[in-house]
Amino acid sequence: MAQARRPGMEEAPLGEGIEISEQEANARKQFLEFRQEDADTLRSLNDVARRYADPVIEDLYRHFLSFAETKAFFVDPRVLDRVKQLQKEYFLRLTEGEYGADYLANRLRIGTVHEHINLAPKWYLGAYNFYLRGVATRLFEAFAKDPQKALSGFLSLMKLVFMDIGLAVDTYIHARESTMRKQQEAIRELSTPVLQIRDRLLLLPIIGVIDSQRARLITEGLLRAIRANRAKIVVMDITGVLTIDSQVANHLLQTVTAARLMGATVIVSGLSSEVAQSLVALGIDLGRLNTVGDLQGGIEEGERLLGYRVVALGEAGGPRPA
Amino acid sequence: MAVPILKQGDVLIASIQAALSDRDLTELRDELADRVGRFRARGVVIDVTALDVLDSFAARTIRAIAYTAKLRGAMTVVVGIQPEVAFSMVQLGLTLEGVTTALDLEEGLALLGPAPQGGPRRGG
After folding, report:
1. Window A:99-158, CB contacts with B under 8 Å
2. Closest chain B residue to A260 measured between Cα atoms?
3. What pTM was computed for the model?
4. Across the interface, do B81 and A261 touch by the CB < 8 Å criterion?
5. How far apart, in Å, are the Cα atoms of A33 and each of A27, A28, A169, A261?
């Protein structure tokens, strides 16, 4: 419906749009029982549609402009004119009898545009309902002498419109999902840093939930960092891991083992009392793990293994400030 | 011999250059066990840097080499396991339990430490 595009956005690629195969399109039409008769019926209404296009669309935009939330989309009068024009094209297209791939692609595009301009589905659906009521009234007005014809025309139109709405809703969902996917990826990348805190000493802070995919990313990132930094000791801090189950514990053990295969020793720090207790309760063999209470202890242990000694300035033997 | 074994002081270095057949691996095991005694070696370094896969037989054989060498008085260090190899080994449960590992040849030799006093020295 309302093709409220921002000026200049016309050619913007809507790359993340979904694709509907011919098979999928046919399945949707079959389920709606949208048949050739419906297409023919709709085509026969084209003349009526032409006659009523302008009043129907004027009504619709009067409705839009009488609500603050929807009015906000049309502050620019040029946008309003343009959208009205597109709306009219769509309105006429409903009765052109051609509902192939081109038509579907156009419908999918609209949903993506709506998502882009943040037009919530409630306004889209509400406006569609208003629009259909306007169309129905005029249809029965045009065929006052043949209400059967008006009804069958309206029913065919409903099938088509519901297919359109289905496509638009799908694009809404798809657009949201792809946003969520991108955010998840971003979070995942942010949440698995490997930091060098001393020569040959790495810090791997783990925060949040670990699933097998994330465990894999953590391990791969760590192994690459071990090679790149020529690390000998890794302090894996799990203060931010609030709960642990046998699967997570196994992931962590695998990370430790993989690091060892590359010649690095892993010190696990920050086991909370809950985590420690559940590990014991789960009966997971952590005998081979090098564990230390907190992150400070982990770093100190790492420094000790590397032969560092941290000395405060001014202490005996240490360098003195000038 | 598929794998050349170099002698550097009292350390033997076996540098595996390409994927080995099971037969090559067995040969390497026997050869190393023999030479550890013959050269009175203190350490053995097995360099697998060039390998992009380490299967269960290879892992088992390397472990066997390490244990055998230990019984004969030498410490074994496996060096150069690549990140991808380490990851897939862990997935397969091949953990080389009880075998010392190091990042690369240099690290492995450092781990074995300098030759004890009285042993062969490098340079003048």
Report:
1. none
2. B101
3. 0.61
4. yes
5. 10, 9, 20, 62
